[in-house]
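Example 3.2
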Amino acid sequence: MKIIFVYNADSGFINTVMDIGHKIISPETYNCNLCGLTFGNFKENSRWKEFREETSVEMEFLHRDEFERKYKKDLNYPVILKEVDGILEIAISKGELENFKDIEKLIEAVSKI
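Structure, written as tokens:
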């Protein structure tokens, strides 16, 4: 099993700079709660990093453009998927992610996948 995390942001330097600016200037309108929980403005959330490094489950982290190129799917982002034997299924939807207010809730949910 692999867990795939797909951010509601595109890859690349310019997109990263724009995302950082958006999170700083108007965090309440930033449209990727997954990114907001797992990353601060400039670095990965330390609690998330600790969890990620300690888990034995394979994890893949993709921006939406990377995901769409690799998997040829267009979903409602951000989203967390579970892949088993090449079959993808939504494990935590965008709506569910929007309800997580802190990193501990995300860690708890991911631990149950």
